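Example 3.2
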Amino acid sequence: MDDEVLGCGGSVALLPDKDRVFVAYATDGRMLPGMIDPGQTTVNGRDLGAVRVEETKAALGVLGVPPGNASFLGFPVGTVSSHEREVVAAVRRLIDEIKPDQILVPFRFDQHPDHVALNKACRAAHQESGSKAQWYEYFIYFRMKLLHGGDIRQCIHPEHLSRFDITSVSDTKRKALECFTSQVTVFFPGQKGPVFSPTMVDSFVAGPEMFLKWPAALHEKQIFTVSPAWIRIVHCIEPILKWNKDKLLMALGRK
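Structure, written as tokens:
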């Protein structure tokens, strides 16, 4: 929840017929970064999952997407990979029911493990369904400092990237993001700052929105301008480096 606005909100706002847009949410949203108790599911007496659903429907309303076009699969945050076959089955049912012309999913080398697992599950569902829908991948966590320019999108051949100028709907995208109060405000006791900083919101609102168009017939070597093996190595080690950096900063902060 909220990734659809971060990665695709401007593009959705530009579409003329929002009734044809359907959004599926894999996880239940019942966890927020920075929570002392990872098992906490309520904030200020309210169920966090219910809060996130309310935020999501409000954001879709701002974009013009009917709330009835949202599907909530309800898998616990952080568990998409361990529920892979169930996710595949759920997405397969949606593909069979909706018969989409395009499918948009998180980028396969995103830095969030649920995004990576969801991409894999959706690819399996797409293949098993026999759908002819065009496949696109959108970008959320695309910063990789060990790659050229620190941005993995710069390592993709330009002909495989679709770029959309969202300047005309940037205010709409911002209003949709502001519906996620759990993300853009200090939402729970002891929280040091919002999940989405003002700088992050400004960056996503400014655009452009970019999508990797990945025909099934293309190999990774044809997509990237650098070795796919190097992409995989960076994708694996950057989260480890960041974790160690954050751990060090926390330790220094206690002294």
